[in-house]
Specification:
Elements: H1 10-24, H2 37-50, H3 55-74, H4 79-85, H5 90-100
Helix pairs in contact: 3-4
């Protein structure tokens, strides 16, 4: 994904973008949504030219959805606990679950 951006400022701009994403991201991993808006917009417009999300975006979303569903199920449907286990902020996690369309059915023993 980062390789598809033109990086007009060369290595210094790439370095600054990585530092910014690490400083302001809300997880231990560097994700596309952690990048500055102007970089994401440029990358999104490149994907939009093809009319569909790129392979990375599709595969990442698929992986993330299955991971989230598995952890939510392990937590008995408790999304706050699932977010904690995955080191995500609960609000971000809930929003991302909605975006991905996660569906988890948990059997409750009464």
């Amino acid at each position: 994904m980062l390789a598809s951006y033109r990086w007009p400022g060369n290595v210094r701009e790439l370095e600054n973008a990585i530092e910014w994403a690490i400083s302001f991201g809300d997880s231990a991993y560097l994700r596309p949504e952690d990048l500055r808006e102007e970089i994401r917009t440029c990358l999104d417009s490149e994907a939009a030219k093809s009319g569909e999300p790129g392979l990375y975006a599709r595969e990442f979303d698929s992986f993330q959805k299955s991971l989230f569903e598995r952890v939510i199920k392990e937590c008995g449907g408790n999304r706050t606990e699932a977010a904690r286990r995955l080191s995500f902020h609960p609000t971000w996690f809930r929003r991302r679950c909605r975006e991905l369309g996660t569906q988890v059915s948990v059997e409750r023993n009464l």
